[in-house]
Amino acid sequence: MKTKRTILKKSVACLMIIATLISSFLGTGTIAKASDLVLDEVTGYSYTGVSPHLSYAITHDPFYIMKVDGKKVFCVESGILADTGGGYIPEAYVNAKKDILSKITYYGFTMTSQSNYNYTVIQIMIWEELGDQYISSTIPNYEQ
After folding, report:
1. Which N-terminal residues, if any, form the signal peptide (predicted)?
2. Whole-angstrom Cα distance, residue 48 to residue 134?
3. DSSP-assigned states of every residue in 64-106
4. Residue 70 CA, distance from chain mean position
5. Which domain holds residue 44?
6. How many CB atoms within 10 Å of residue 130?
7. pLDDT tens digits for 46-72?
8. Tens-digit pLDDT profile for residues 71-97
9. Structurally, how many domains does the chain consist of?
10. Angle at 114 between CA 110 and CA 119, to 5 degrees
């Protein structure tokens, strides 16, 4: 025998499910804004390393500063080509090393003069942390 309370609970639960479904179909979706990647500033340095994505040495000469929507950004996929232009959609970076990469960029770039030297050093440190094998660079005292 169903009590009024049981019937009421089931009715409320059913109404909540229907309301959730209706709001999810009628609600606005997430809008993804495409961004512009710009590679127009040369650092004055070069770098050669073995990319874990390609398994062979590549040389970055000239070494460019990457900017998305006017802000300096860092690459997390060494060896993967990036060209100037639109259509890049930002997304959350998911990796077990996210915390250490954040510290590298914060202390090595954000808290510095943000010079071309700082940018290049930090970019190479990020690649090394993600598996790049350093071979050589024109960066003075990089190993230190």
Report:
1. 1-34
2. 7
3. EEEEETTEEE--SSTT----SEEEE-------TTHHHHHHHHI
4. 15
5. 35-137
6. 18
7. 999 999 999 999 999 999 999 998 999
8. 999 999 888 887 777 776 667 788 899
9. 1
10. 95
Amino acid (1-letter code) at residue 36: D
Whole-number Å distance between alpha carbons of 134 and 111? 24
Closest of 113, 88, 85, 80 to residue 34, by C-alpha: 88
CB within 8 Å of 65: residues ≥ 6 apart: 39, 41, 42, 43, 72, 116, 119
Q: Say which residue, 127 or 1, is predicted with more confidence.
A: 127
pTM: 0.73
Does residue 17 lie in a domain region?
A: no
Q: Would 8 be classed as within a structural domain?
A: no
For residue 103, what are its two tokens? 């510290």
Short-list 78, 70, 30, CA closest to 53: 78
Is residue 89 a part of any domain in this protein?
yes
DSSP-derived pairing of the beta strands 133-137 and 85-88? unpaired
Task: Report the candidate in 81, 89, 92 with the shortest Cα–Cα distance to residue 36.
Answer: 89
As to burial, measured by CB atoms within 10 angstroms (0-12 exposed, 13-18 middle, 19+ buried), residue 46 is middle
Measured in whole angstroms, the distance separating CA 130 from the mean position of its chain's CA atoms is 13
**Amino acid (1-letter code) at residue 122:** I
